[in-house]
């Protein structure tokens, strides 16, 4: 059994995805449903998933919770709420009371789009992160390499909150430049309340020419830094389809972990996500 710990869906008839702009993203400028996901995920052995937010719109999280309630494959939801709001704790409590509210497992914000590299350290954001911890949820980090030092400081200051790093912190795979990304990853991984998703790599590589070996240096870095018990597989579907099919991403993850023991691979493909997201 495999858990896909990171995927999305969206319906453009409900709302626009304002981040899908430009000709290079045109292939994903359409609606993607849970049924579409299941047709691709089931054949490669995925039987549970974590549905992750896509836009900073409050209405999306209740919609995702409802999808989880109605679709067996979705075992957890990482939603969005405004961390800077003074009533974030009340908002999280209200989300838990909605249909499907028991599926809420974490919160995420597109920190990668914030101009301030230390956005995570703002007092109002820190208060919101503390509320996430108090609610028994985890926090997904969507950041760029230059924002990783702030992630380290945030995780140090909130040891009671589990931080899940999405997409390896977006290493510059296409350029082949490992530093300073690798050093910053090791600093984050040194903190016991941090976890990393083995996801999003193909779209950080050259979309047309990437090979599994292009991804290996970054995979090896996070394997060494976090260890299999703090790594989890995620497809990043349908964003991954800009560079690869769902099966391609799954096959790449299997190839990149082929040197591990069976129990270590079970952690990456099932155990870590099940434990961290309480699936």
Automatic annotation (TrEMBL):
Domain Amidohydrolase-related span(s) in chain numbering: 3-279
Any Pfam family: Amidohydro_2
Gene3D superfamilies the record matches: Metal-dependent hydrolases
Positions of transmembrane segments: none
PANTHER family the UniProt entry points to: AMIDOHYDROLASE, AMIDOHYDROLASE-RELATED DOMAIN-CONTAINING PROTEIN
Homology family: Belongs to the metallo-dependent hydrolases superfamily.
Protein name: Amidohydrolase family protein
Species of the source: Streptomyces cynarae
């Amino acid at each position: 059994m495999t858990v896909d710990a990171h995927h999305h869906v969206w319906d453009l008839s409900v709302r626009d995805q304002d981040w899908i702009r430009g000709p290079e993203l045109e292939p994903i400028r359409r609606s993607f449903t849970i049924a579409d996901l299941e047709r691709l995920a089931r054949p490669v052995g995925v039987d549970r998933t974590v549905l992750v937010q896509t836009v900073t719109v409050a209405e999306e999280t209740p919609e995702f919770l409802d999808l989880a309630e109605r679709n067996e494959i979705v075992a957890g939801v990482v939603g969005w709420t405004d961390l800077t709001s003074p009533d974030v704790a009340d908002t999280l409590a209200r989300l838990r009371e909605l249909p499907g509210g028991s599926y809420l497992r974490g919160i995420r914000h597109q920190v990668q789009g914030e101009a301030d590299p230390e956005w995570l350290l703002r007092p109002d954001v820190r208060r919101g992160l503390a509320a996430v911890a108090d609610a028994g949820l985890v926090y997904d980090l969507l950041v760029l390499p230059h924002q990783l030092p702030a992630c380290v400081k945030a995780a140090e200051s909130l040891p009671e909150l589990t931080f899940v790093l999405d997409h390896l912190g977006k290493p510059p795979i296409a350029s082949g430049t490992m530093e300073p990304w690798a050093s910053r990853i090791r600093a984050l991984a040194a903190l016991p309340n941090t976890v990393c998703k083995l996801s999003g790599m193909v779209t950080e590589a050259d979309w047309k020419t990437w090979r599994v070996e292009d991804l290996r240096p970054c995979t090896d870095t996070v394997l060494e830094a976090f260890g299999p018990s703090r790594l989890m597989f995620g497809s990043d579907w349908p964003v991954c389809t800009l560079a690869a099919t769902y099966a391609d991403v799954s096959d790449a993850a299997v190839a990149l972990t082929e040197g591990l023991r069976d129990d270590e691979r079970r952690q990456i493909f099932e155990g870590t996500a099940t434990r961290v997201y309480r699936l």
